[in-house]
Amino acid sequence: MELLYQYAWLIPVLPLVGAMLVGLGLISFNQGTNKLRQANAVLIVSLLGAAMVLSFAILWSQIHGHAPYLKTIEWASAGSFHLTMGYTIDHLTALMLAVVTTVAFLVMIYTDGYMAHDPGYVRFYAYLSLFSSSMLGLVVSPNLVQIYVFWELVGMCSYLLVGFWFDRKAAAEAAQKAFVTNRVGDFGLLLGILGLFWATGSFDFEVIGERLQDLVASGALSMGVAVLLGVLVFLGPVAKSAQFPLHVWLPDAMEGPTPISALIHAATMVAAGVFLIARMFPVFAGLPVVMNIIAWTGAFTAFLGATIAITQNDIKKGLAYSTISQLGYMVMAMGVGAYSAGLFHLMTHAYFKAMLFLGSGSVIHGMEAVVGHDPALAQDMRLMGGLRKYMPVTSVTFLVGCLAISGIPPFAGFWSKDEILGSAFGANPALWGVGWLTAGMTAFYMFRMYFSTFEGAFRGNQKEIQVQLLGEKDGKVVGAFGPGAMDPKELGHGAEAHGYHSDSPHESPVTMTLPLLVLAVPSVLIGLLGTPFNNYFEGFIYPPGELHPEVMEVASEFDWTEFAIMAGNSVGIALIGITLASLMYLSRKVDAAAIAVRLQPLYQLSLNKWYFDDIYDTVFVQGCRRLARQVLEVDYNVVDGAVNLTGFLAVVTGEGLKYFENGRAQFYALIIFLAVLGFVIVAA
Amino acid sequence: MDLATFPWLTTIILFPLVAAAAIPLIPDPKGQGRPIRWYSLVIGLIDFALIVYTFSTQYDLSSSELQLVEVYNWIPQLGLQWSLGADGLSMPLILLTGFVTTLAILAAWPVTLKPRLFYFLVLAMYGGQIAVFAVQDMLVFFLVWELELLPVYLLLAIWGGYKRQYAATKFILYTAGSSLFILVAALAMAFYGDTITFDMRALGLKEFSLSFELLVYGGLLIAYAVKLPIVPLHTWLPDAHGEATAPVHMLLAGILLKMGGYALIRMNAEMLPQAHALFAPALVILGVVNIIYAALTSFAQRNLKRKIAYSSISHMGFVLIGIASFTDLGLSGAVLQMVSHGLIGASLFFLVGATYDRTHTLILEEMGGVGQKMPKIFAMFTACSMASLALPGMSGFVAELMVFVGFATSDAYSLAFRIIVVFLAAVGVILTPIYLLSMLREIFYGAENKDLTSHEALIDAEPREVFIIACLLVPIIGIGLYPKIITQIYDAKTAQLTLRMRGAVPSLAQAPVPMGSSPAGMTTHFYQAPQL
Fold it and tell me: Where is the NADH:quinone oxidoreductase/Mrp antiporter transmembrane domain (chain B) (predicted)?
């Protein structure tokens, strides 16, 4: 067993090796490497597969009670300062390793089908592998600095992958937005880390927690400062896990290829924020104010995400807001101290949301055969409908995902969400109220998505809708084109890449449907690990510092009546949501458009994402540009102007003085001598 | 021949100079400068090999003392000595000089205008730059500092861009004018007190009066502020960098800026500690101004070269904060930031040059979508920009982190001051990706710019260019992954220097250096960890 732990560093290193090899190949022998398309993919997938096997071996040994493992080496030092790096393996790490490697592995297999025709196929695999490596490095980090290192690295991978199709302007902007927004969070995280180090002299989570408690208890550090440091650290997760007010980057990040949306922007990287809160739990737990802020941020984000998701027409954007909302649940759980419930939801969500995103990718892949490669067409649900007939596997797995996320028993999402809601009720009924309402909205928007995508009649061939959507995309007046006047370039692009143009979508290749089917299994079953009457999950994942038997005791005091009331409430509102969705989008008995007109202000608020993008653009983006331009003007006109003025004056005075110059070296020496003399006299 | 007493540094300095003198004798039948290029490259490689050999066999990492000392009387009547030596401050910069200059020669491959003169000047710079870092005599230091300006002036004025005359004149007036302060300070310090000496170590031991130190410090600060540069004495730099060709650019950003930082530590901080204690808060404030001001101007710049030039200024701000932190870690970070920026700045400027060779424009609006035809340059540019925005795993991150932690835990400043400075410096951490990523987006992303592709053939990077960037990225990533490879060269020196600097601050003179296991604030009642 020890051998396994000694070589655990291979888990992040293996995918890194894959990325490096393929990356070097791409730089040095570009054409050759690109020709060996699947050979590269096989190399990378098998390296990650090896990492997955190691991860499961570690999970297995941790479940069987192996002690936590820590190994570090000295990384940087100056004088008496020493900073170590290394890896740590405990229950939380083992769980995250297993989740990340499985999702990454399946996404990589899926990628082979999804990116089959893309000229950047090999590059995409290299990036994927690099990301997996950074993410795995993040979860094994034993201290805050190393977390920060990998935190930024996953951010960079996200940047590269969102901007993968770099010829698309929108992708370029989204990539930059993602990176910069995350940097704002990292700014807080960095300040928080520095502050905590200043206060406690350590980068280790538990040491920081203990010492901070001592300092606050002894009054050496005022509570206000401690809270400030906690909030600064929390800014990191706010950005990474797309919480209000830094959530704006995640929907835009959907410009990246869909496997990325599934892996990075749904299952793993965005969950890193929740993971960090879990790691910092010893610190946050001692700061009730910070815990409250975390809980309410999460609750508000859950609500915000759900309200926006209701009106999105882009299938990926809808799922993105749903992710924001679900991340809000996890953060809220952390905030109310429901440590294991939050992580449980993280795990279940990783599986079913990855499946949903991969399903949406499958749908887009099918739609592209009909409408071409323009995301404005291929991803819009108004052009879909009736896809169940053409894509049976995709539709069944998507339905499973919808049931799971809506919290219908016995699917995975029910158990984890119910546990969060239960804990929230215990902490503050208002939080529970928000969460409960959001659960209803979740069921509604997910089934709205399911019904408009897979049920009804296929609308993909209706040219009027296509024209209208293209018009919306370009911001032009709708109807200015005649029917069929699509952008010819886009059609050409689609036809070129596929070689044919069909009238009906098709089911995706087996490399894409297989991961969907595999992910459906945990989406249905994994929740059973954490049932309230027999909670294996909580027996494995519990807050640091809490003793194992304590947890089990709590679990044994299970109350059926209470469970029935709580579960009944959340299932009830979910069913209401589903019913509403079916009335509006399946049987069309209720006209959604009419409701939208009736509730125009609310509809517009939701459709325009609460106007966050517009406000941020005006205040921050334009403001920053204006400020920079003004500073540059000052630099040109004032600072450099003064220099040029000096030069001008020198010329003028020089012209005047030149008659006094006599060209004798002694005279110059005299001046220098006098200057030095004066200097010494003045000083002495 | 005894290896231990062999004049290594003199050889390293004179070898390129002597070799440069032989350039007129090299036959160049085709007039394209091909033999001269190879000759210079070989000379550069030999000299770099000499530096590496000397470093690995004759240099003791654990010592904080001056090593490889050579003293020859030059003009005894003036007390002038050719005195060389290297310690933890000089050694990393000498290594950097050898490395970057050799790569710059390789980067200058396409230069065909007056190749003899060009390579003569580059080789002259090679020796001159190393001399600046190795000389231990104030007066000789002034001489080599001045001599260094001449090749740069000519390289700018002859091979520069459209406004090269203006830029070169501005450069020479700025730097030559300001370096007069070095001469005056050197003379004043030499004649102060009973003994007359120009030897830096002897000068460091002299006890100056406080007002004298302040005066000299102020004078030297102006000289080095121009070189580093410090806002508002920076305006020569965008012009000079904006007009220089890529190889000259690499030298300017990679090495010449470091001369300012080096001299600031070597003279201001080490020889005038009392004045440094008083000036330090001003340095910190100037550092913060550098970071934010230059980041904003860089963001607004539409000219690619000037954009990167301003980003250099921004990065130098961390050097200032580190120098003034009075902690091991901060000072160590400052030195590392110089080395790191030397590598990153050189690589970015080289790539800017490579991009310009293809697009023939530096205006961002006239580019766009270039990445489709030049994926390798795109990839390398992205990697180097990531290094510049202090991505972890690359050297810039380590340096900035060390400065941050060093300053945040410094006990020389009040808590409020530290909070404000760290906060503002961290704002720079947000601004840097904004301007760098916007730049990448405008050059490489998006649809191809038809106006550009219609008349420019955009050819991807050739192996020579990939090789140069690979050479620069290896140490950048190497330091980022394991910073001790560089920090161990100067750890002993910075520790000793920190003690000396702290000795001049009354409140710190007795206190232990506040790093590592003993955390500290202004007050000592913070958590006292058990000594590990």
Answer: 136-418
Beta-carbon count within 10 A of A624 CB = 18
In a domain, B411, yes or no: yes
Range of the domain at B294: 3-509
Spatial contact of B312 and B467, defined as CB atoms under 8 Å apart = no
Distance from CA of B461 to the nearest CA of A (A): 10
| Every domain of chain A and the residues it spans | 1-142, 143-607, 619-683
Average pLDDT over residues B223-242: 87
Give which of B184, B188, B446 is closest to A167, Cα–Cα.
Answer: B446
Out of B433, B434, B516, closest to residue A82 by CB? B516
Q: So what's the pLDDT on residue B509? A: 64
Mean pLDDT of A424-435: 88
A640 to B296: CB separation less than 8 angstroms, yes or no:
no
| Element containing residue B86 per DSSP (H, E) | strand B80-86
| SS3 letters across A88-154 | EECHHHHHHHHHHHHHHHHHHHHHHHHCCCCCCHHHHHHHHHHHHHHHHHHHCCCCHHHHHHHHHHH
Residue whose entry in the numeric block shows the structure tokens 């949306």:
A261
Q: Give the confidence band of A480 by pLDDT, cuts at 50, 70, 90.
A: very low
Q: What is the pLDDT of residue B532?
A: 34
In B409-510, where does DSSP find H-type helix?
415-444, 450-453, 463-481, 484-503
Tell me the per-residue pLDDT of A179-193, one tens digit each, with 9 for 90 and over.
999 999 999 999 999
Residue of B nearest to A212 (CA): B527
CA distance A399 to B264: 67
Q: For strand B80-86 and strand B67-75, is the pairing parallel, antiparallel, or unpaired?
A: antiparallel
Give the residue from B292, B407, B480 showing the smallest Cα distance to A195: B407
pLDDT-derived band at B471 (thresholds 50, 70, 90) equals: very high
- For residue B521, tell me if it sits in a domain: no
The predicted pLDDT at position B529 comes to 40
Q: For residue B524, is it within any domain?
A: no
Whether the pLDDT of residue B527 is over 50: the answer is no
The one-letter amino acid code at A593 reads: A
**Both structure tokens of A289:** 């104010």
Contacts of A214 in chain B (CB under 8 A): 527
List the one residue out of B507, B299, B504, B325 whose CA is nearest residue B402: B325
This prediction has a pTM of 0.88
d(CA A515, CA A447): 22
Structural domains counted in chain B: 1
The pair of three-digit structure tokens given for residue B38, joined into one six-digit string: 């190879």
- Chosen for mutation from A16, A28, A81 (greatest number of chain B CBs closer than 10 Å) is A81
Q: Which one of A150, A167, A682 has the shortest CB-CB distance to B447?
A: A167
Any idea which of A29-38, A452-461, B416-425 has the lowest mean pLDDT?
A29-38
CA torsion, ordered A414, A419, A423, A426, to nearest 10 deg:
70
Q: Do A167 and B444 touch (CB under 8 A)?
A: no
Select from B441, B487, B515 the Cβ nearest to the Cβ of A80.
B515
Measured between beta carbons, the chain B residues lying within 8 angstroms of A195 are 408
| Mean model confidence pLDDT for chain B | 86
A211-215, A601-605, B504-508: least confidently modelled range: B504-508
Residue B527 lies in a domain: no
* Number of Cβ within a 10 Å radius of residue A224: 9
Question: Could you give the CA distance from residue B12 to residue B38 in angstroms, rounded to a whole number?
Answer: 19
